[in-house]
Amino acid sequence: MGIYDGKTVVITGGSTGVGFATAKALVDEGASVLITGRTQSALDSAGEQLGDAAITVRSDAASLADIDALADRVKHEFGGLDALFVNAGITRAVPFAEVTEQDYDELFNVNAKGAYFTVQKLAPLLRHGSGVVLTTSLANVTGQPLVSVYSATKGALRTMTRGLARELLPQGVRVNAVSPGPIDTGIIERSMPPDVAEQMKEQLSADNPMLRFGQASEVAKAVLFPAFDATYTTGAELAVDGGASQL
């Protein structure tokens, strides 16, 4: 028997990186998981690796219609939820002087608006005692170049965590956040030119107290604690950043 036998969980942005690592940790311990993503090929690959205990749904976090459809699908598949991991997000590396309205709107639509309405639409399905976890970032407490808008979206998620935690208390639902630092998920390589990505990775490693990137599996372990075990904790943010925000 697994420690999450019978548990039902939704993970947005669950086809790669931290979301996928969390889904795998849950499935390996008996949970039923529904993951979302925007890229069908990534979802197909994730589904093959996770097996029959996982459901994959193509869904855009920036689309309210997709979020409504997701809520309907979750109700049909699970009836109710024991945990919700709001992990879908994007980043852009753009100098402040070159940020466009399109850059700004896209980042806020996915990272902040999408997260907010995902919780709103799925909240009626959350069982008493369940946990919601949002993914924030080290960037919401440290000033970093090229990611000013991304940092602002993660700052919004941090305050959102507190507000939603207060609002969902009467329902018996806890809301917390995990704040990853540099994690080796490939997102830097996918979002920046190769030379810029390599330079940033070297600098981030050198600046980190542990002198390394974290692994997605390390963040997954941190996600599961507020989702299930931190039964007297709500509104908090757990740093998973090699000490970068603390030391």
Structural features, described:
The chain contains 8 helices and 7 strands, in the order E-H-E-H-E-H-E-H-E-H-E-H-H-H-E. It has 247 residues and is an alpha/beta fold. The chain has a single domain, classed as NAD(P)-binding Rossmann-like Domain (Rossmann fold). A 7-stranded parallel sheet has the order 3-2-1-4-5-6-7, with helices on both faces. The longest helix is centred in the middle third of the chain and has 22 residues. It is globular, with a radius of gyration of 17 Å.
- Which sheet architecture does the biggest sheet show? 7 strands, parallel
Q: How many domains?
A: 1
| CATH architectural name | 3-Layer(aba) Sandwich
CA(first)-CA(last) distance:
40 Å
Please give the number of β-strands: 7
- The shape is globular
Sequence stretches where pLDDT stays below 50 over 5 or more residues: none
| CATH topology term | Rossmann fold
Order of helices and strands: EHEHEHEHEHEHHHE
For this structure, the quaternary state is single chain
Radius of gyration: 17 Å
The largest beta-sheet arranges its strands as 3-2-1-4-5-6-7
Range of strand content: 15-25%
Mean pLDDT: 95
CATH class: Alpha Beta
Helix content: 40-55%
Our count of helices gives: 8
CATH 4th-level superfamily:
NAD(P)-binding Rossmann-like Domain
Helix-and-strand structural type: alpha/beta
